[in-house]
Design goal:
By secondary structure, the chain is of the alpha+beta class. It is built from 11 helices and 21 strands.
Length: about 450
């Protein structure tokens, strides 16, 4: 749900086929001990098999100020994992003949640009062309204040279209905000009640609901961002993300939801097939999350300082959920480690050793770098002795010195290696290396 940062979280596509069913929980515990020792992650994880939790772990605080610790019932904002719930409600509406996937948006909101050419299906798989509300230049000026339906519609109408409907796919939270309104209209009830009556009550998800202002007294976690310390993040008003990102939940509840969904307990097999049919990488409320030759489906989430990930592997009847209220290490790396432990594959524990650098040491790296391989330029600055990187038009992020002339941003798996004498920088991420030259 959150406005995109420089580097998006990666879903690693790994190939192979040999597995063991020994579940190395001790090594997973070791991972979380390492993360906790180095202050890299606050949150909760759970792994379920056939709907039953077989592993869970929590580290960190609901509220750092009061030292209230996270437990398995702590609720987190799960961001765009909410879209899986909204998609499920949408297919319920289709099955009840209240809407159809090829029905035009103009039947509901004719003043949205290209509404006659945008279908319900286009909203589900991000092929509408409607501008992403969280990418609006003014978004961070008003996202903590309540918005009415009328106000949100006016923002979408003013934002217009960024491409011809159905010509390509591009992620837009606006699609699921509009789906929220459509669902409320056709079911004649508000989104919070629809989630409750049609999903959480039937599945007995006692810790899942549409959020409001965060209440630590109700075991709801605040979220945090890190510079040299953890700082409490702002709170997006939940009248804005709605079905695109307003749900709060726990990993155990998320796994229960995913298991029920893929067992056909919420929507039909035909609807589930449509939800998991992918065009240009987009399903209808889901993404592919393969691990070796295992087919996984799920969604990532991010809102304020929260990040989350849900991955279900229907054939093996397992589901993994991660919710975090403060992270300096990628959820995808945690997901891969848990899957590796479950399937008997090896994985390395992270090494967070750092080297000491002075502000004077950092001066040799400062400047703007350009690459023939990537369009975005990267500007390197320093802030109180911390090296900072920022791509054109995107947010800056801090780098840690891990070796001489080498810096990392663990949260997104980014490594920058410098050759100051050649005014060269190498950006490494996801197995790729990109060469940059200082301008």
């Amino acid at each position: 749900m959150k406005k995109s940062a420089l580097v998006s979280f990666l879903i690693l596509l790994i190939t192979g086929s040999v597995f063991s069913q020994e579940f190395d929980t001790a090594k997973i515990d070791g991972l979380f001990t390492t993360l906790e020792t180095h202050d890299r992650f606050m949150g909760s994880v759970a792994l379920s098999k056939n709907g039953k939790t077989i592993y869970s772990k929590t580290i960190g605080y609901v509220n750092i100020e009061t030292k209230q610790k996270i437990n398995t019932s702590t609720k987190f904002r799960v961001g765009s994992i909410s879209k899986m719930f909204t998609s499920t409600l949408t297919f319920m509406a289709v099955e009840e003949n209240k809407i159809s996937l090829d029905q035009p948006l103009a039947d509901f909101f004719p003043t949205v640009k290209n509404a006659s050419d945008i279908t319900i299906g286009n909203l589900l798989n991000h092929r509408s062309g409607i501008i992403n509300v969280t990418s609006l230049p003014s978004y961070l000026l008003w996202n903590t204040q309540p918005k009415t339906r009328l106000q949100l519609l006016e923002l979408l109408e003013q934002g217009g279209s960024v491409f011809t409907p159905n010509s390509k796919a591009e992620y837009s939270n606006s699609n699921y905000v509009l789906l929220t309104f459509i669902l409320e209209d056709v079911f004649k009830d508000n989104y919070a009640n629809l989630i409750k009556d049609r999903i959480t009550v039937p599945l007995k998800l006692s810790n899942t609901y549409v959020g409001s202002s965060i209440a630590p007294t109700n075991n709801e976690a605040y979220s945090y961002n890190y510079d040299t310390n953890w700082n409490k993040s702002f709170e997006t008003d939940m009248s804005i993300p709605l079905g695109a990102g307003a749900i709060v939940s726990t990993p155990i509840d998320l796994n229960t939801f995913a298991t029920a969904l893929f067992k056909g307990k919420l929507i039909s097999k035909n609807s589930l097939k449509q939800m998991t049919t992918f065009t240009e990488g987009y399903g209808m409320g889901s993404f592919q999350m393969p691990y070796f030759d295992k087919k996984g489906f799920g969604h990532n989430g991010g809102i304020d300082g929260f990040t989350s990930q849900l991955a279900c592997f229907p054939k093996d009847e397992i589901s993994v959920a991660i919710t975090s209220n403060g992270s300096r290490y990628g959820n995808n790396d945690i997901l891969i480690a848990i899957l590796a432990a479950y399937y008997g594959k090896s994985f390395r524990l992270p090494n967070f050793n750092t080297v000491t650098v002075t502000p004077k040491d950092l001066e040799q790296y400062l400047g703007t770098y350009a690459s023939r391989q990537k369009k975005l330029k990267v500007t390197i600055t320093q802030n109180d002795g911390t090296l900072m990187a920022q791509a054109t038009g995107q947010s800056s992020f801090p780098l840690e010195a891990v070796e001489k002339h080498a810096f990392e941003f663990y949260l997104a798996g980014v490594r920058l290696e410098f050759e100051p004498e050649n005014k060269t920088m190498y950006l490494k991420q996801g197995g790729g290396t990109f060469t940059y030259k200082m301008e």
